[in-house]
Design goal:
The complex is a heterodimer.
Chain A: E1 13-19, E2 23-31, E3 37-46, H1 56-71, E4 95-100, E5 106-112, H2 118-128, E6 131-138, H3 145-155, E7 159-162, H4 172-184, E8 197-200, H5 207-214, E9 219-222, H6 236-253, H7 257-263, E10 269-270, H8 271-286, E11 290-295, E12 300-306, E13 309-315, H9 324-331, H10 333-337, H11 346-358, H12 367-391, H13 404-408, E14 424-428, H14 430-433, H15 438-449, E15 453-460, H16 465-472, H17 476-487, E16 488-496, E17 506-513, E18 519-525, E19 528-532, E20 539-546, E21 560-565, E22 570-575, H18 587-597, H19 603-611
Parallel strand pairs in A: 1-4, 4-10, 5-6, 5-7, 7-8, 8-9, 11-14, 14-15, 16-22
Antiparallel strand pairs in A: 1-2, 2-3, 11-12, 12-13, 15-16, 17-18, 17-20, 19-22, 20-21
Chain B: E1 23-34, E2 40-41, E3 48-49, E4 54-60, E5 64-67, H1 69-73, H2 80-83, E6 91-92, E7 97-103, E8 108-113, E9 118-123, E10 129-132, E11 136-141, E12 146-152, E13 156-167, E14 170-172, E15 175-182, E16 190-191, E17 204-206, E18 210-211, H3 213-221, E19 226-232, H4 234-241, E20 258-265, H5 272-280, E21 285-289, E22 302-306, H6 318-321, E23 328-331, E24 340-345, E25 351-352, E26 358-359, E27 361-366, E28 371-375, E29 379-381
Parallel strand pairs in B: 15-17, 16-18, 17-19, 19-20
Antiparallel strand pairs in B: 1-13, 2-4, 3-12, 4-11, 5-10, 6-9, 7-8, 9-10, 12-13, 13-22, 14-20, 15-21, 21-22, 23-24, 23-29, 24-27, 25-26, 27-28
Classes of the chains: A alpha/beta, B mainly beta.
């Protein structure tokens, strides 16, 4: 519930936190003398879900206490009862808000009639609400009934979304799915003493029967049909209901959340929902197709805003701490080691990642461990993006309207994301935001997403996109000011032609003009990568003349003229080819050359590692 | 905002740290033993229990079997009730008729039989009939010896015992118990297959820095109840389980024994405190569980060694005490992984590590007298 303690115009201090699966991140924002909202300082502490501290508010207090220590400013109340709100002239903040993904986030199971129609819409609604979809059960999903029942029983979701049928159509199939849910009698994951929430968003004609079937054993809520007619998708009522139930059931049963909900001025939002709002802010502000990643400890969230459609996917078990071994499992050791420019035994890598899994809050102190984590990050994002592409298909998107002709093509629908049309790539999450050199996060994003053509690269400076996402729901002006000035770090622009050639063959010639007097021309050959300095806020005219096998957006072999923006890394010319293939021969030497070209890691230590 | 300029102050303690694993010589331990769903509690308050005592039992729902009756009878789903021979709640046997369709003076006959013995649970509007098999009784044992301190109605009980207690970092396998038997001479010695003989049958064996895969296989062969050791190979874990573990949620593995590692993956000497405690307790019965869950509601593997007369040390308010100069810690990441020491100082300024990460640090004096500076995130407090 939204209760602001002070009019927005009178606010001076805002505190926002994100209770992550690994770390609780507090961010302190202030209004400066010019009246602009700015980020001041960050405090972080391990999330406290582990005994003896099974109460997330302890982690919040610890993170906020860091802010207090760094600023010598009082925010926590003396009686350990929470945050001092509002600012009383000496102490406290005017607004406190938070996102959360601790407790494994919101875990849902989705059930619908036809896997490619209603179940798919339900899946999208759940993902859009910031949930992790554990499984999608459908009449035609190829499993036997007993297998579906067993699956529902063992999953123990936080809630179930049930959809199916168009209004006025047959109710038979949706009742079959409801009966499967009833037969399975799943118990909720958190808190044994309450009924599992089920949202029914299917054929409205089936409501009485669904109520009769599920009304007693479950906490049933009924919302508008997700697919009232075949060619229309109405996601918002379901998404809103998911959020309400998330607050009411899931949050109140996670350790310490009851207390935390009393501290906050506005509802706690799932971290991915906050991140999604932030990604949308970027797409709106720059009027561009955006691809984004939130690389967390437990999950990898990928966002695409393509032609105005926001789609979010969450790879629940791809992450950099709790789920790091699942990246190892999904990607395999070889795929991770291919990014490592020094000798390392598989056994050593496996032990290192397993130790990170069991001690998820630790951070790499040595360069070797940092490079390994960066290698894993590339694979987590690559796998997450592959997953995303299976969801971002032609039928996907928020509230899309289609013709019947489109619907018949659905089984053939492939992803609509064309990398050449992606104007901006954004990265957020602890690993990316905390990368010691900004070129490192740019390279991780570039290797994982493989942008094509001309693409701007952004990064969350100190990991505060979820914070600003939730803040934007009540105070969008402040959120955007902080976002633009302190959060959104412009890394630079990547120029990467589509195509392949042999090592050393010409890929493109690039002429960059910063003014009528200053220009630079570079020829890039296959397998090379380099950068040209063009600082944040600077612009340049660029003429890219690709070789005849290569395309930078104007067609094969056709020159492209564009105005590009700089960033902290500058303009990166990537002539490694698309798709990017790492050479089998001299792989380490090639990696070291790339590292050196972009000055990714400290030279001397890098040499020592490579020679060791 | 001059108010916030240069206001960093010297720091005496921090609250942002990783809670350490517990190693306690004596403590009063309360173990909540609860069923996953409600059932019957079979013990009484103040009753003395052994690990084998059944505290509570529950009926696990039987498997539901769905019979597409209307389809089999070739009738409309809404006509199903007219053709049912059994009602909701009726008991049925496998092969028994539950519905029939007879038309044209008996010329057309169609029957539906129950696929299993069970109870008719639902006759749905979709024309489906659910038959559920009889419930399965599941026992919940006490797991540790002690006194029943509290009854949790319908769910279980709280068992209290005096014990020595060691928390591990990761484990596989379920709850078990047996006498402790230390098979190595030192906390940094590797436990190998040749050290394990039939004398270890039914025992909880203790190694040092590492246990080989062959040794674990041998332990299973001679029916060792459990293995406690400092480290284990990450790749050996895959061989042992037969699959690659992606997320650390364990406790249900059927590997023939229970494995608890106290430090981490790779060869890492067991902490002196844990090793010495286990050695002192050799011969006594230990109750162990490998169950690990490194997510919300974290569960760590544990070793409980019940004591007759435990002298309880006062439990400090661990959180409020925080980390401060003198606090004993263990480093939990390379390059000093496993080293023990104590906090010298907690500089407020961020410092740059070899990885160039700019982090909050802690200065530590190691047990050998040398000093290192490591990220605060890479140490855990040794709880005493």
């Amino acid at each position: 519930m939204m209760v602001l303690r002070k009019p927005k115009k009178d606010m001076r201090f805002i505190l926002a936190t994100d209770v992550g699966s690994t770390t609780t991140k507090a961010r302190f924002f202030i209004k400066n003398e010019e009246g602009d909202w700015r980020f001041l300082v960050a405090g972080e502490a391990p999330t406290t879900v582990e005994t003896p501290y099974e109460d997330v508010t302890l982690g919040v207090r610890n993170a906020v206490r860091e802010i207090e220590e760094l600023t010598n400013y009082k925010i926590l109340s003396e009686e350990a009862s929470g945050i001092i709100v509002p600012f009383d002239g000496e102490r406290g903040v005017d607004l406190y808000c938070t996102t959360s993904s601790a407790g494994g986030g919101l875990q849902m199971m989705v059930a619908g009639n036809v896997k490619s129609i209603t179940a798919e819409s339900a899946n999208r609604a759940a993902l859009g609400a910031g949930a992790i979809v554990m499984d999608v059960i459908a009449i035609d999903d190829g499993r036997e009934d007993y297998e579906k029942i067993r699956r529902i029983r063992t999953l123990r979701p936080d809630m179930i979304l049930l959809a199916g049928g168009t209004n006025g159509g047959t109710i038979f199939h949706v009742l079959m799915i409801a009966e499967l849910v009833k037969a399975a009698k799943p118990t909720p994951r958190l808190g044994m003493g309450y009924k599992l929430p089920v949202i029914f968003a299917g054929n409205k004609d089936a409501r009485p029967q669904v109520k009769e079937l599920l009304g007693e054993a479950f906490s049933l809520s009924v919302v508008d049909n997700l697919r009232p007619v075949l060619e229309k998708e109405v996601i918002e009522p379901t998404r809103r209901n998911i959020h309400e139930l998330f607050m009411e059931h899931v949050m109140s049963h996670a350790p310490g959340y009851n207390k935390l909900t009393k501290w906050t001025d506005i509802d706690i939002m799932p971290t991915p929902a906050g991140e999604g709002l932030a990604m949308q802010l970027i797409a709106n502000a720059y009027k561009s197709n955006v691809l984004g990643v939130g690389l967390g400890g437990a999950t990898t969230n990928i966002y695409s805003i393509f032609d105005g459609r926001l789609v979010r996917s969450v790879s629940a078990n791809l992450g950099m701490s709790y789920s790091i071994c699942n990246v190892l499992k999904e990607a395999t050791v070889g795929k991770i080691l291919r990014w490592v420019p020094f000798e390392m035994e598989e056994k050593e890598l496996i032990n290192m990642l397993r130790n990170k899994m069991i001690r998820p809050t630790t951070i790499p102190q040595t360069l070797k461990e940092l490079i390994i984590e960066h290698a894993v990050a590339r694979e987590a994002i690559r796998l997450g993006f592959e997953h995303h592409k299976t969801i971002a298909t032609r039928l996907r998107g928020v509230k899309v309207e289609r013709t019947l002709a489109d619907i018949f093509e659905q089984s053939l629908a492939k992803t609509y994301i064309e990398m050449i049309k992606i104007g901006i790539i954004v990265g957020t999450g602890g690993l990316l935001s905390h990368a010691p050199r900004r070129a490192q996060s740019l390279m991780i994003l570039m290797d994982a997403f493989q942008p094509v053509g001309v693409t701007r690269m952004f990064q969350d400076s100190v990991f505060m996109m979820p914070h600003l996402g939730v803040l934007s729901t009540v105070y969008p002006e402040a959120a955007w000011q902080i976002f633009d000035k302190d959060c959104l770090l412009r890394l630079g622009t990547v120029i990467a032609p589509l195509g392949e050639a042999k090592d050393g063959e010409k890929v493109m010639e690039v002429r960059l003009e910063t003014s009528s007097e200053e220009s630079e021309t570079r020829q890039m050959n296959f397998g090379e990568i380099s950068s040209i300095s063009l600082g944040e806020g600077k612009e340049a005219e660029i003429i890219i003349s690709p070789a005849k096998e290569f395309d930078v957006g104007a067609g094969r072999g056709k020159a492209l003229e564009a105005k590009i923006k700089g960033g902290v890394v500058g303009v990166v010319l990537d002539a490694r080819g698309r798709p990017l293939n790492l050479p089998e021969e001299k792989r380490k030497e090639t990696l070291l050359r790339w590292i050196s070209s972009l000055n990714l890691y400290p030279d001397a230590q890098m040499r020592d590692l490579a020679e060791a | 905002m001059n108010k916030f300029d240069n206001v960093m102050k010297p720091e005496e303690k921090t609250y942002a740290y990783t809670p350490g694993l517990k190693v306690k010589e004596y403590m009063t331990l309360s173990k909540k033993r609860v069923l996953p769903i409600s059932g019957r509690v079979l013990v009484k308050e103040n009753q003395t229990v052994s690990p084998e005592t059944v505290v509570a039992e529950m009926e696990m729902l039987g498997e539901p079997h769905i019979v597409k009756a209307a389809l089999l009878l070739r009738i409309e789903p809404n006509e199903i009730n007219e053709h049912m021979l059994k009602a909701v709640g009726d008991k049925v046997y496998e092969g028994e008729l539950i519905a029939q369709y007879i038309a044209f003076f008996g010329l057309i006959k169609r029957f539906v039989k129950s696929p299993v013995t069970g109870t008719i649970e639902n006759i749905g509007a979709s024309g489906w009939v659910t038959v559920r098999t009889p419930p399965i009784i599941v026992d919940l044992k006490a797991y540790i010896p002690g006194i029943v301190k509290e009854i949790i109605p319908e769910m279980g009980a709280v068992i209290e015992t005096s014990a020595s207690y060691i928390q591990g970092i990761f484990g596989v396998g379920g709850e078990t118990y047996g006498p402790l038997r230390v098979l190595v001479n030192s906390f940094d010695e590797i436990l190998t297959a040749d050290m394990i003989t039939s004398e270890s049958k039914g025992k909880i064996i203790v190694g040092g820095s590492f246990v080989t895969l062959e040794a674990i296989r041998k332990a299973t062969e001679v029916r060792v109840a459990g293995v406690i050791v400092g480290g284990f190979g990450g790749d050996d874990l895959t061989s042992l389980l037969g699959y690659e573990m992606g997320v650390a949620i364990t406790g249900e593995e059927k590997i023939g024994t229970t494995l608890i590692i106290t430090e981490g993956f790779g060869e890492i000497a067991m902490s002196h405190r844990s090793f010495n405690l286990l050695r002192r307790m050799e011969g006594q019965v230990a109750c162990i569980s490998g169950a690990t869950q490194i997510r919300a509601g974290v569960i760590r593997p544990e070793v409980i060694i019940p004591q007759e007369q435990a002298k309880e040390k006062a439990l400090e308010d661990e959180l409020s005490s925080g980390m401060r100069p003198g606090t004993p810690i263990r480093i939990i990441r390379q390059p000093c992984f496993g080293c023990l020491g104590s906090v010298v100082s907690l500089p407020v300024e961020l410092q740059i590590m070899e990885s160039e990460s700019d982090v909050r640090v802690v200065e530590v004096e190691l047990d050998d007298g040398s000093r290192v500076t490591v990220p605060r995130a890479n140490v855990e407090i040794i709880e005493t």
